[in-house]
């Protein structure tokens, strides 16, 4: 259904608190790049950004966030630019939101609401859609105002872009509560199914390699390059939402499953962190995590720090060297001397060394595949097993529990199998098939 409303005229406001007001919390980004990201978020949902500004302020006012002089000044802007919607890039309390809407006679959405809206538009799988809806309902319930979003969406509309005349209706708490219960039940059902899928995948001996990284870092482009797939890769924040999996054969024949997933962003709404835990659970279980960074971005370090924070929250040690490999993407965009620095850093080697690549041109991606293979197979052992000709069940078991490198049937029908397995499975094999030659690869 493509019922396009005329583009909504949007003003993007990024408040920049003075150091004092942030209680010394380190600000990782410049106000300018925060504003650029905010404009990118608005654009990600097809808003027509007609005005954008950083508003410096020394303290947050409980009633309107900004001081009264600023509120008035912006009222003039909203009127002059015929703004329908103000994206206020911070967390607003319901009271602040309402007061600003009154003062500006325009719809006001904060960062959480906007990101929820983007996620709502992008969710494709049933689970993704349910999780976004759940996050939405929780957000609404916490604000006691009926939202412009999922109710509108059910009518096939464009969420809060739904037009004027929309009033803030007191939410019917009970209605929302009932709905939350229903969705939670449905989610449980979907999760059970997914759990089964995952369990069956676990039995597949292929290691899982997960791509993570800041939104727009180039994960999907890299995924496509490595798998020759065609996942949507766009200069768009949160182009990918639902996880995608695909098998890749590494240079020496090791097969892995590569997973592309949702990108991270600073101040990811807590509702969504919870909701997307399931998506990110794939990451938790991955054998290897590729942290894809846009090394050409001025905020690359701040972005990497944000990603590390989320990984840490999920219980993954974000330090490169362990399960994480840092992939420094977009080297084609670097100036020659910057590029040299990056390459020197990579050449120093070691387990923590980043891998410079360009997902766009393909430079460095062969090295990356080689490294993935070395890391995956390191510590694996090869075992040789001989089976009686009639032991079809045993053969099936081996295929499920290891990576069969070679299988030879000799003249009297006996089957010799060379199997590569993680070391912790060696005991299992010896127990089941008797003592066998076990040697490291
Ligand atoms: N110059 C250059 N551009 C790249 C490279 N890799 C990706 N891009 C561009 O960066 C933009 C974002 O790429 P995506 O692959 O969609 O990024 P993503 O990390 O999947 O983003 P989300 O799904 O939004 O989290 C696209 O316009 C890509 O063409 C690269 O190596 N060099
Ligand atoms: Mg993507």
Summarize it.
It is built from 15 helices and 14 strands. It has 441 residues and is α/β, with parallel strands linked by helices. The strands form three sheets. A six-stranded mixed sheet has the order 6-7-5-8-9-10, sandwiched between helices.
3D structure, described in words:
With 441 residues, the protein is α/β, with parallel strands linked by helices. It is built from 15 helices and 14 strands. It has helices at 31-43, 68-80, 94-104, 111-122, 126-143, 150-154, 173-203, 219-227, 270-275, 277-284, 300-313, 336-347, 365-377, 392-401, 426-433, and strands at residues 9-17, 48-57, 85-88, 107-110, 208-213, 244-249, 255-260, 288-294, 324-329, 355-356, 381-387, 403-409, 415-421, 438-440. The strands form three sheets. A six-stranded mixed β-sheet has the order 6-7-5-8-9-10, with helices on both faces. Helix 3 (94-104) links the parallel strand 3 (85-88) and strand 4 (107-110). Helix 5 runs antiparallel to helix 7. The longest helix has 31 residues, at 173-203. The protein is elongated and about 90 Å long. The site of magnesium ion (MG) has 5 residues, from helix 8.
Features:
GTP-binding; 15 helices; 19% strand; binds guanosine-5'-triphosphate; binds magnesium ion; elongated; single chain; 4-stranded parallel β-sheet; 6-stranded mixed β-sheet; 441 residues; GTPase HflX; magnesium; alpha/beta
| Alpha carbon gyration radius | 26 Å
In total, how many beta strands?
A: 14
* Approximate helicity band: 40-55%
Q: pLDDT average, as an integer?
A: 82
Write out the strand line-up for the largest beta sheet, numbering strands in chain order: 6-7-5-8-9-10
Major sheet size, sense and barrel closure? 6 strands, mixed
Bound molecules: guanosine-5'-triphosphate, magnesium ion
Low-confidence segments, given as residue ranges, are 145-158, 161-171
Shape: elongated
Oligomer: single chain
- Give me the strand/helix succession: EHEHEHEHHHHEHEEHHEHEHEHEHEEHE
Query: Which class best fits the helix and strand makeup?
Result: alpha/beta
Question: How large is the count of helical segments?
Answer: 15
Strand content: 15-25%
Separation, N- and C-terminal Cα atoms: 55 Å
């Amino acid at each position: 259904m493509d019922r396009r409303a005329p583009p909504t005229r949007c003003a993007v406001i990024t408040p920049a608190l003075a150091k004092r007001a942030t209680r010394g919390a380190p600000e990782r980004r410049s106000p300018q790049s925060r504003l650029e990201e905010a404009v990118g978020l608005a654009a990600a949902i097809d808003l027509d950004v007609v005005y954008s500004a950083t508003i410096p302020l020394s303290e947050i006012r409980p009633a309107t966030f900004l001081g009264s002089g600023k509120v008035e000044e912006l009222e003039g802007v909203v009127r002059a630019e015929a703004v329908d919607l103000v994206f206020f890039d911070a967390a607003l309390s319901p009271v602040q939101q309402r007061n600003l809407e009154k003062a500006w006679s325009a719809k006001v959405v904060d960062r959480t609401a906007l990101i929820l809206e983007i996620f709502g538009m992008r969710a494709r799988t049933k689970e993704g859609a349910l999780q976004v809806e759940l996050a939405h309902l929780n957000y609404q319930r916490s604000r006691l105002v009926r939202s412009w979003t999922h109710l509108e969406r059910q009518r096939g509309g464009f969420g809060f872009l739904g037009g004027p005349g929309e009033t803030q209706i007191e939410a019917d708490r009970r209605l929302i509560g009932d709905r939350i219960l229903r969705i939670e039940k449905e989610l449980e059902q979907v999760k059970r199914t997914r759990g089964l899928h995952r369990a069956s995948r676990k039995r597949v001996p292929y290691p899982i390699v997960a791509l993570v990284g800041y939104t727009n870092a180039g994960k999907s482009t890299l995924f496509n390059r490595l798998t020759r797939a065609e996942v949507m890769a766009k200069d768009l924040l949160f182009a990918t939402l639902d996880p995608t999996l695909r098998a890749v054969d590494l240079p020496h024949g090791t097969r892995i499953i590569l997973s592309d997933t949702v990108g991270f962003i600073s101040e990811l709404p807590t509702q969504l962190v919870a909701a997307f835990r399931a998506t990110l659970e794939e990451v938790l279980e991955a054998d290897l995590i590729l942290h894809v960074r846009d090394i050409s971005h001025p905020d690359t370090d701040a972005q990497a720090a944000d990603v590390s924070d989320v990984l840490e929250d999920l219980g993954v040690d974000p330090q490169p060297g362990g399960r994480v490999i840092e992939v420094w993407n977009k080297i084609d965009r670097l100036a020659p001397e910057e590029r040299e620095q990056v390459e020197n850093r990579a050449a120093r080697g070691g387990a923590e060394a980043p891998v410079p690549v360009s997902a766009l041109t393909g430079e460095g991606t062969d090295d990356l595949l080689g490294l993935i293979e070395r890391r995956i197979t390191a510590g694996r052992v090869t075992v040789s097993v001989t089976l009686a000709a009639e032991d079809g069940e045993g053969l099936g078991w081996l295929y499920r529990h290891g990576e069969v490198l070679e299988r030879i049937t000799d003249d009297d029908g006996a089957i010799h199998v060379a199997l590569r397995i993680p070391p912790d499975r060696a005991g299992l094999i010896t127990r089941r098939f008797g003592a066998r030659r076990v040697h490291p690869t």
